[in-house]
Amino acid sequence: MYRQAAELIVNAKRVTAFTGAGISVESGIPPFRGESGLWNRYDPALFEINYFMSNPEECWGMIKELFYDIFGEVRPNLAHYALHEMEMNGHLSAIVTQNIDNLHHEAGSRNVYEFHGNSRKLVCLNCRRKARVGETDLGVLPPSCGRCGGLLKPDFVFFGEPIPEAAEKGAAREAERSDVIIVIGTTGTVKPACHIPFIAKESGASVIEVNTEPSAYTRRITDIFLKGRATDEMEMLTETLYSAG
Ligand code: ZN
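Structure tokens for the assembled complex are given below, as produced in the milestone run.
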């Protein structure tokens, strides 16, 4: 299985990885959905854009606790680093991620399409200027824009907001051009991001899937299913890839 997957990757002109919450779980970020998911502990309404604009102080209290106090210290894991290594070695062209945790960037990956934005940046809802979280004073909530005083919002996609156009178009273009897509740690249920592997498949790509459980892709489009944790499977895959040359 690993050998087959490695051969597909070696023989491909372009390989894209499509990642979801499952790749970051081992970094200590629980998924939003599912039994132990964050939505059972935090009210999703707080991430609804109109509610946020009407109640920024309430929403920001929870946002700061969750994203900047609890998740502020998380680090990339072996699976993130494996993808970085593949990019460095010319075996990976792009990453399309549904995650907002910035861990692909922190692992060193360069060509990353963040379908749902990035929690490590803030955006001013008035002038659209972006700022890094580390450069922003979160002592007084809600934080305001250093240039115009407008309300700052984390630069990830809230419910009721559109997907960033550049990320959505770029991700679809990468999927269309890929010969192989590696699906890692996603159930394939969040629209419209979940379409990306299907776009790749329809454009002729082979699908390698790394998941602990079968997903919406497994029986429909997956060619090689590597069942297990993202770190273990990506380590096995890259070991096979580099021992095979
Ligand atoms: Zn501003």
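Residues 124, 126-127, 129, 145, 147-148, 150 surround zinc ion (CB under 6 Å). The chain has a mean pLDDT of 93. Further analysis is deferred to the final report.
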